[in-house]
């Protein structure tokens, strides 16, 4: 029995090797942070002086003071570390992507790549615009309003820096949360089936960070900011929960009840078998079944990984491969489905396509193949299900595809046990094992 998911490119590695890799990457980031912080230590006084001169709405000598020297020293060291951290953001993004990428599913890799690249670039631009333009403008507006009212202003340099850092941090948190939800929707990582999972994590993490970043004495501002952040984040999530973005998703709690009353979430995977089985089953399937389309599962590692991801996210219980009988599939895919408790089978429509001179298969062949399955439907109802399907010509029934059988125009084939079929007409041909021996 498999102990976990295995992707196409996975290799057997002990946990200690992953911990060693993580330790090495963390050591590299710590060294880079220390080196960048040491460089900023030489220039921090000039940087803080110039920024306070930009941020202050009046002359520094007239209205800017330091009322708590100890807090100023703490703010100075905090600024050194933050500037060093900002300086190594490209290294952090590179290390995070390199470490996480091998263990992610295809959509997760796309989401993480876009999130790191776009999030890092947009975040840097947002911080620069906020601290270099927006905050000085707001401070100037507030100062002029106070001067109009005849109020003399005296500002605390530490509090001004603390406020600017809090505003930039809140903007960064909200921007990253919005980008995470939007990218998850566009990459197909977020859908109807897992939107609750995304809501809990995005709302929870963003609200917790906002609560920690905004100073405790600004209770009203903190509450309003959290409400606004939740509203914006929910507005970014809602479009991706509609049927337009989740057309291939089997809704949560829906499926087919088996003979024991258990819910079975069945997916039919239309495998083209590299063009040998040209049938897209999606348009012909009932709404109680999910649909997935691939070109050749045996040949494409990416398609196998995407199938594993789809089965996990939609919580499928059964997968039916249209082309083969599932035996040619790679071992890692079978182990992953076993780990997900997914029953993997095949409809073997490729045999029908190979037995016809024109290689044609259609929706009638698909309906016969589905009707001949005894799980999740009762075994004693298989014969009635198969015979209820209207066919134009003779119907061949056998447990395995008869050797040398050629299906002429209008002829059909159903793979199931022959025993339940009795009192059938001349248009139904039963192929017993003894006759084929």
Number of helices: 14
Q: What is the terminal-to-terminal distance?
A: 36 Å
Could you spell the SSE succession in H and E letters? HHEHHHEHHHEEEEHEHEHHHEEEH
Proportion of beta-strand residues: 5-15%
Which of globular, elongated, flat, extended, rod-shaped describes the shape?
Answer: elongated
**Major sheet summary line:** 4 strands, parallel
Gyration radius, in Å: 32 Å
- Please report the total strand number as a whole number: 11
What class would the helix/strand composition place it in?
alpha/beta
Mean pLDDT, nearest integer? 83
- The helix content, as a percent range, equals 40-55%
Q: Uncertain segments of ≥5 residues (pLDDT<50)?
A: 243-247
Placed side by side, the strands forming the largest sheet appear as: 6-5-7-8
Summary?
With 437 residues, the chain is α/β, with parallel strands linked by helices. 54% of the residues lie in helices and 9% in strands. The protein has 14 helices and 11 strands.
Task: Supply database-style keywords.
437 residues, alpha/beta, four-stranded parallel beta sheet, three-stranded parallel beta sheet, 14 helices, 9% strand, elongated
What does it look like?
This protein has a domain at about 15-145 and about 155-240. β3 (about 255) and β4 form a beta hairpin. It has helices spanning about 15-55, 60-65, 70-85, 90-100, 105-150, 155-185, 195-215, 220-235, 300-315, 330-340, 350-355, 365-370, 380-385, 435; strands at about 65, 155, 255, 265, 265-270, 290-295, 320, 345, 395-400, 410-415, 430. By secondary structure, it is of the alpha/beta class. The model is unreliable at about 245 (pLDDT under 50). The protein has a four-stranded parallel sheet, covered by helices on one side. α4 (about 90-100) runs antiparallel to α5 (about 105-150), α6 packs antiparallel against α7 (about 195-215) and α7 (about 195-215) packs antiparallel against α8 (about 220-235). The chain contains 14 helices and eleven strands. It starts with 14 loop residues before the first helix and ends with a helix.
């Amino acid at each position: 029995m498999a102990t976990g998911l295995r992707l196409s490119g996975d290799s057997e590695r002990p946990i200690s090797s992953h911990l060693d890799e993580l330790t090495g990457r963390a050591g590299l980031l710590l060294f880079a942070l220390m080196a960048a912080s040491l460089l900023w230590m030489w220039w921090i006084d000039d940087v803080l002086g110039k920024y306070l001169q930009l941020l202050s709405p009046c002359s520094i000598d007239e209205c800017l003071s330091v009322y708590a020297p100890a807090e100023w020293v703490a703010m100075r060291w905090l600024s050194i570390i933050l500037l060093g951290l900002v300086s190594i953001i490209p290294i952090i993004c590179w290390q995070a992507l390199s470490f996480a990428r091998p263990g992610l599913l295809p959509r997760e890799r796309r989401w993480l790549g876009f999130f790191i690249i776009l999030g890092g670039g947009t975040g840097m631009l947002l911080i620069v615009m906020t601290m270099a333009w927006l905050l000085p403008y707001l401070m100037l507006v507030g100062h002029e309003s106070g001067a109009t009212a005849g109020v003399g202003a005296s500002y605390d340099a530490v509090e001004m820096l603390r406020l600017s850092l809090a505003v930039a941090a809140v903007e960064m948190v909200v921007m990253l949360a919005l980008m995470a939800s939007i990218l998850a929707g566009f990459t197909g990582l977020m859908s109807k089936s897992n939107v609750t999972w995304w809501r809990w994590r995005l709302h929870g993490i963003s609200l917790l960070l906002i609560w920690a970043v905004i100073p405790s004495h600004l209770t009203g501002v903190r509450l309003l900011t959290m409400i606004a952040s939740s509203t914006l984040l929910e507005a970014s999530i809602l479009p991706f929960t509609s049927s337009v973005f989740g057309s291939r998703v089997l809704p949560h709690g829906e499926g087919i009840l088996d003979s024991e009353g258990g819910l079975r979430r069945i997916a039919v995977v239309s495998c083209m078998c590299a063009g040998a089985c040209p049938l897209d089953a999606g348009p012909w399937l009932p709404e109680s079944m999910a649909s997935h389309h691939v070109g050749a599962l045996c040949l494409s590692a990416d398609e196998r990984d995407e199938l594993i991801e789809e089965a996990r996210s939609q919580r499928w219980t059964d997968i039916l491969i249209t082309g083969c009988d599932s035996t040619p599939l790679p071992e890692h895919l079978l182990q992953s489905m076993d780990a997900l408790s997914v029953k993997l089978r095949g409809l073997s429509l490729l045999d029908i396509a190979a037995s016809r001179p024109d290689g044609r298969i259609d929706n009638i062949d698909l309906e016969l193949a589905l009707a001949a399955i005894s799980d999740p439907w009762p075994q004693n109802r298989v014969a009635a299900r198969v015979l209820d399907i209207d066919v134009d010509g003779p119907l061949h029934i056998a447990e395995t595809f008869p050797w040398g059988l050629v299906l002429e125009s209008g002829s059909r084939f159903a793979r199931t046990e022959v025993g339940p079929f009795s009192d059938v007409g001349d248009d139904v041909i039963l192929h017993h094992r003894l006759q084929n021996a």
